[in-house]
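Minimal example, chain plus adenosine-5'-diphosphate.
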Amino acid sequence: MKLQQRFVMYAVLMIAASIIVGFAVSNVLYVAFVKEQINDRYLSVLEEFTEQIELDQITLEETSSYLYSKSKLGYQIALVAEEGTMHSYGVPFEEMQLTEQMASIFKDGETTYNGIENARFSGLMMSHFENSLSNTVGLKVAIEGKDYGLFLRTTNSSMFSEMHLVLFGFVIAAFVISVVGILLISRKLIRTISELTAATEEIANHNFDYPLTITGKDEIGKLADSFRMMQEKLANTDETRRKFINNVSHDFQSPLLNILGYSELLQEEIASEEGKQYNSVIQTEAKRLSNLTKQLLTLTSLDQGTYPINKQEVRIDEQLHSVVRSFMWRIQEKELEIDLDLSPTQVYGDRTLLMNAWENLLSNAIKYNNEFGYIIIRTYETEKAAFVEIEDTGIGMEQESVDHIFERFYRVDKARNKEGMGLGLSIVHEVLTYHQATIHVNSELGKGTKFKIGFPK
Ligand code: ADP
């Protein structure tokens, strides 16, 4: 469940819980205070009626019209004779049954009936609104020398006076407003979290400039401030790291070239076979280090945007032809079969950078191939893009490794190849990103690998 949905769900549950608790509290208040007051009020009204009837000794007929006129004040009144005949005045009762308890009013010594107090669900406020004869307060009254029961309650509509409706409206409006408010607040909160998430993702992609719009003095504002500080520090560290790599690579380059040059000269001077062998190891290792520093320099200059880019129309099919030619001795050494399907394909880009990418990809296709394996290289164009495919039948990789091969210094298995430093494919990635090209890798362990590159037009 998304954070906002969870937040809204909890808030709605809270509102529902507060309504239930509020309802329970109001019930307790009703039972503790209001109910008794209402009872007493009804009784005093009834006493007033019976006094009037008994003192003035009015007839049954006169009593009827008297009660009828009183019912207009918002009362439901019933006059019940001992044998069970009933007359009601005002809004009719929905249920008019003379219960045993009500009938007991006619017994000697009993004068009052308290139906509100003894209601079925007397603890619930809602029972107060039950429109039945039993939900009344009653008094015995003598008319024309005969005992009658006079029962009374207030009509529901007058209980639900306008104030009650206003109160009801208030509760509903408060509920709606709280739900809408919660939605708005949660959206605002979630937006800040989404923004922070996006900024974090950018940091993971080495972009430390993602602008955060969150401000404020609250916790989220403070979090955003700390985040900005972290962005700044990370950007500084990254810059220092790049500068360091750049400087070290630069400083390594000239001594390495010296070592290479002198060891080449030395090769002629060395007489013993063993000495020549040692010297060629020095040469190979110095070449390896020199290549590494060159790769590092290319990467840092691409990172810093200081690489001297020179964009022009480049025939990549021709470039691939020439890369294959320059790697021919390694291809033949491993007795690989190479299949070229290079139709004229042109892209707008930097010649040297692209060449670097092809060299890295082909060098990998050879390095990670099996003896007598195949390499297939294809170039073709469609209306929307130019494509390069480099496929080999080598050792391949698992998907887990494929997900990491473009990371710097990542090597699937260091034992596979002692030459590599895990920088080649990160350069390929940088170069292709620079050209807005896409690269897809399909690889299967033990079967081979296919790189497909697309340059949009
Ligand atoms: P390296 O210099 O180690 O070759 P790369 O960046 O070129 O570094 O490649 C990263 C890793 O990806 C390599 O260590 C290698 O294991 C794997 N890899 C690259 N190309 C291939 C390929 N064509 N076939 C199998 N594995 C490959």
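The chain has a mean pLDDT of 87. Residues 3-56 form the longest helix (54 residues).
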